[in-house]
Design goal:
The chain is of the alpha/beta class and about 230 residues long. It is built from seven helices and 15 strands. The strands form three sheets. The chain has a seven-stranded mixed beta sheet, with helices on one face. Bound molecules: zinc ion. Zinc ion binds next to loops.
Length: about 230
């Protein structure tokens, strides 16, 4: 676990991240890891001495939502938020919408029993986090920009495991997020849009948190576009 003042990363098998974001009213949990992550997350919250008051999911892949049901059982009052587009995927409906690239969905969408009580669209705020559209890896992925310090929780739009990479093309050193990507041209567009936000820190779903990530994001986008 690494932590700064506002952000605490909780890891599972050294490769899967969830984040606790400190707010005045408690903690926002971003993603829930795979099954079994709930115990790690609850232990981390206890060390921080604050309650988890809400959960935001960046997307519906199994390594981001797998811990949700166990957490909700332990925290029945917690608010669960997911993007409006990702909500059906979380509920097991894999139908693509008219107007979307009709590419095959990749990766695991196990679904959850828990349903989101709040549906998010880009521009919404969740505490200090601004919701940013980040489609491509999945149809409705979101990223979250902390307005206080410009930390970008980017889901699987970028990975930093095996070096900073987009998921528009599998990184040979950690190919999984790239292989699980739904539509690579959209993922590349998203990588560019997130870079344009000039984040001060990049906090990905897989890999360590990277400070001052702009040069590394530019290089990753250039590789992704090849
Ligand atoms: Zn994913």
């Amino acid at each position: 676990m690494t932590s700064s003042q506002k952000l605490t990363r909780v890891t599972q098998i050294g490769a899967v991240n969830a984040y606790l974001v400190a707010e005045d009213d408690g903690l926002t949990l971003v993603d829930t890891g795979m099954r079994g992550m709930d115990r790690r997350v609850l232990a981390a919250a206890e060390r921080l001495g604050a309650p988890i008051v809400r959960v935001v999911l960046t997307h519906a892949h199994g390594d981001h939502v797998g811990g949700l049901d166990a957490l909700v059982r332990r925290l029945p009052e917690v608010e669960v938020a997911v993007s409006e587009r990702e909500a059906p995927l979380l509920a097991g409906d894999r139908t693509l919408r008219a107007g979307e690239p009709q590419a095959r969905l990749r990766g695991s969408y196990p679904g959850t029993r828990a349903r989101a009580g709040r549906l998010l669209v880009p521009g919404d705020r969740v505490g200090s986090l601004e919701v940013v559209a980040a489609p491509g890896h999945t149809p409705g992925q979101i990223a979250l920009l902390d307005a206080r310090d410009r930390t970008l929780l980017c889901g699987d739009a970028f990975s930093t495991l095996g070096g900073v990479a987009t998921t528009a093309r599998p990184n040979p050193r950690f190919p999984l997020p790239g292989l699980a990507t739904w539509h690579r041209p959209t993922a590349l567009e998203t990588a560019r849009a997130l870079r344009a936000l000039r984040p001060a820190r990049l906090a990905p779903g897989h890999g360590r948190v990277v400070d001052d990530p702009l040069a590394a994001m530019d290089a990753a986008i250039a590789r992704g576009a090849r």
